[in-house]
């Protein structure tokens, strides 16, 4: 993990930095495997009474969910134990939601 000019490897120095995301590429690989229906359901969940969809690869934490304008933001746990912040929202209101994780 790089923070400005400082580079820290949490696997070698876990006492220095306890991070919930240690493999950003692996996290993105997991998220890319999820189908469009999962993301559509997740995007609509805060606006419905159904709640977040259940998935073995990515578990959205409903208590962390926030909406801002047309986007939804939340923390999610991944199958490999990582946690990521996810935002889903339209680039253009006429287009389906996009995904970004970080």
Tell me what you see in this structure.
- This protein has 102 residues and is an alpha+beta fold.
- The radius of gyration is 15 Å and the shape is globular.
- The mean pLDDT is 81.
- The protein is 19% helix and 28% strand.
- It contains 2 helices and 7 strands.
- Strand 5 and strand 6 form a beta hairpin.
- The strands form 2 sheets. Strands 3, 4, 5, 6 and 7 form a 5-stranded antiparallel sheet that branches. A two-stranded antiparallel sheet has the order 1-2.
- The longest helix is centred in the first third of the chain and has 10 residues, at 24-33.
Keywords:
102 residues; alpha+beta; two-stranded antiparallel ribbon; 19% helix; globular
Instruction: Kindly estimate the percentage of residues that lie in beta strands according to DSSP.
Output: 25-35%
Summarize the biggest pleated sheet.
5 strands, antiparallel
Q: In terms of per-residue confidence, which ranges show pLDDT below 50 for 5 or more consecutive residues?
A: none
Helix and strand element order: EEHHEEEEE
CA-CA gap between termini: 12 Å
Average residue pLDDT = 81
Tally of helical segments: 2
Structural class: alpha+beta
Proportion of residues in helical segments: 10-25%
Overall, the morphology is globular
According to DSSP, the number of beta strands is 7
Whole-number radius of gyration?
Answer: 15 Å
């Amino acid at each position: 993990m790089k923070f400005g000019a400082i580079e820290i490897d949490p696997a070698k120095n876990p006492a220095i930095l306890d991070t919930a995301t240690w493999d950003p590429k692996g996290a993105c690989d997991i998220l890319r495997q999820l189908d469009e229906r999962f993301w559509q359901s997740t995007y609509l969940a805060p606006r419905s009474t159904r709640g977040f969809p259940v998935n073995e690869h990515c578990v959205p934490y409903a208590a962390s969910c926030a909406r801002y304008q047309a986007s939804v933001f939340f923390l999610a746990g991944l199958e490999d134990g990582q946690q990521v912040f996810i935002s889903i929202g339209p680039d253009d209101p006429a287009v389906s939601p996009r995904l970004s994780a970080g």
